[in-house]
Design a protein that fits this description.
This protein is α+β, with helices and mostly antiparallel strands. The chain has helices at residues 27-38, 56-60, 81-91, 98-117, 139-153, 206-213, 231-238, 297-306, 318-321, 324-328, 342-349, 353-365, 456-473; strands at residues 14-23, 43-46, 65-66, 122-124, 133-136, 157-159, 163-169, 175-182, 185-197, 221-222, 243-244, 250-251, 255-256, 276-278, 311-316, 337-339, 401-407, 409-410, 412-413, 416-417, 424-426, 432-438. The structure holds flavin-adenine dinucleotide.
């Protein structure tokens, strides 16, 4: 990096300069860094983690992405930008920022093609999700490695173990750079084009979790990176940025309850729609077939944590368990509990026997006729029980029964910074903060209450790419 500190004042921080400074090396930061470099800017990317843990949440993910496309060999259906827009707005109950969502949907396809042109190979995403997602063959780790290679090959500079701690704001109130803690001590990096905050949400910061999400949030299993501790959000707000979005909510998934407590990766159970959930009393507590799994897994996981006592059981029979896609939608953390009878299952999972027998026989008796089709909202439902199962209701009558312990966890937080469609951060007076961008998890107003599956990686790629291009255009 260009060194400005040839004769630093005694005790002063070392100083470096670049055109564009990117904070964080996940999908958003890498997309920003590459697009700024493509536009001809000198780029430094700083990453808080050591090299072998680079890649943030992105590296723990399968990194599946939804974007508009025609039906293809992966079994996906036609999916238009308008449909994507409608899905994202509906799932946020109309609260997401329409301009940001429109920008995301209108740019998602071109951004996916941009990744493809860099060498990303795709395969089919999870089955039975509504047919619009694709998955990078090499998962999130492969995606991150591909983009780091690309950035390195373009002459980009990466500084590992370098954490941004505050923004440098000049006399004109322009964001001129970042102060960092690095292996060489305190370092100031100036950036004439801008600083792009792509350093995650606050999910790994237990104090912020409890402050914004509630008391229960201290014990949540952290699915991804330990380094996303809200630094970008805090330093931007300290400089006047406006908080925006749903600070009291977060992304989660229905996890195998035996998952490691931190950085557990993909230990989610994505096939619960083939069975039922019961709580510790052996009672069902939600409609497992309410909608496609992609539109329910986040809210169901929160329901388990906040309302069903923290842990529950997902129960299947052999009709579900023997399906080829069962294994593709659950990477076991441990073996399932198996039992030949409902009574024995109740004993093994320690729920009241009479309750579980009543729940399962009542459920079986309530099932209505109809065709079973996991790729459609098939309307094969129960009648006369509460809660109902609105789709995919098959009787649980083929032992051995299978039970898997489940809980919720935390993936990323919904609260972020107010941004415009160029990913420029807006301050609390409603004006653009000169030189400051946010992309990926630190951007607010995208997700509310729930989460449309496969939307976060593509969100990071789209807005990172936009931010990088815009910042490159502003360089001195
Ligand atoms: C197990 C799992 C599965 C998932 N599956 C999917 C999926 O299939 N599809 C999907 O769309 N989403 C998925 N997600 C969510 C998605 O992966 C993330 O929300 C998305 O990748 C975030 O990208 P990002 O670039 O914003 O942040 P990250 O990838 O988390 O990158 C942020 C980076 O910033 C660094 N950083 C933090 N603080 C600082 C600082 N002060 N200074 C410098 N660097 C800093 C971190 O070390 C990190 O490398 C999944 C997440 C997990 C954990």
């Amino acid at each position: 990096m260009p060194d400005l500190s040839s004769s630093p004042r005694a005790g002063a921080a070392a100083r470096y300069a670049t055109d564009v400074l990117v904070v964080g090396g996940g999908i958003a930061g890498l997309s920003a860094a590459i697009s700024a470099r493509e536009a001809g800017a000198a780029v430094i990317l700083i990453e808080k983690a050591p090299r072998d843990q680079r890649g943030g949440n992105t590296r723990f993910a399968d990194a599946q992405m939804r974007f508009p496309h025609e039906a293809d060999e992966f079994g996906t259906r036609d999916y238009t930008a308008d449909q994507m827009f409608a899905d994202l707005m509906r799932i946020s109950r109309g609260r997401a920022n329409e301009a940001l969502i429109r920008t995301l949907c209108d740019n998602a396809r071109a951004t996916a093609e941009w990744l493809t042109a860099m060498g990303l190979e795709w395969e089919q995403g999870y089955p039975h999700t509504a047919g619009y997602r694709r998955s990078p063959k090499s998962g999130g780790q492969g995606l991150v490695d591909l983009l780091f290679r690309r950035f390195d090959g373009m002459g980009g500079v990466v500084s590992y173990e370098t954490a941004a701690v505050s923004l440098i704001v000049d006399e004109q109130r322009r964001v001129a750079g970042v102060r960092c803690h690095s292996p060489e001590g305190v370092v100031d990096i100036e950036a004439s084009g801008g600083v792009i905050l792509a350093c995650g949400g606050f999910q790994a910061n237990v104090e912020m979790r409890v402050r914004y999400l509630g008391r229960f949030a201290d014990s949540l299993i952290l699915r991804g990176s330990r380094y996303n501790t809200g630094d970008g959000l805090n330093m931007a707000m300290a400089a006047g940025a406006a908080p925006a979005g749903q600070w009291g909510d977060y992304h989660s998934a229905v996890l195998d309850a035996r998952s490691p407590k931190i950085e557990c990766g993909v230990t989610a159970l994505y096939n619960y729609q083939m069975g039922i959930f019961v709580d510790h009393q052996g009672r069902r507590f939600l409609d497992e077939g309410e909608d496609f799994r992609d539109h329910t897994y986040v809210k169901f996981s929160k329901f388990i944590v906040e309302q069903a006592g923290g842990e529950a059981w997902c129960i299947f029979d052999q009709q579900a368990y023997q399906r080829e896609e069962f294994a593709r939608a659950w990477r076991p953390v441990g073996p399932p509990v198996l039992a030949e009878t409902i009574e024995d299952l109740a004993r093994r999972i320690d729920v009241p026997e009479a309750n579980l027998v009543e729940t399962m026989t009542g459920f079986n008796a309530a099932i209505q006729p109809g065709a079973y089709d996991l790729d459609q909202l098939d309307g094969k439902r129960t009648l006369g029980i509460t809660p109902p199962k609105s789709n995919w209701a098959l009787p649980l009558d083929q032992p051995p029964y299978v039970a898997i312990p489940v809980t919720g966890g935390i993936t990323f937080t919904f609260g972020g910074l107010r941004c415009d469609t160029l990913a420029r951060v807006i301050d609390t007076r409603g004006t653009v903060m000169d030189g400051l961008y946010a992309a990926g998890e630190p951007m607010g107003e995208i997700f509310y209450y729930n989460y449309p599956g496969a939307s976060s990686v593509i969100r990071g790629a789209v807005f990172g790419r936009i931010a990088g291009r815009d910042a490159a255009g502003r360089r001195a």
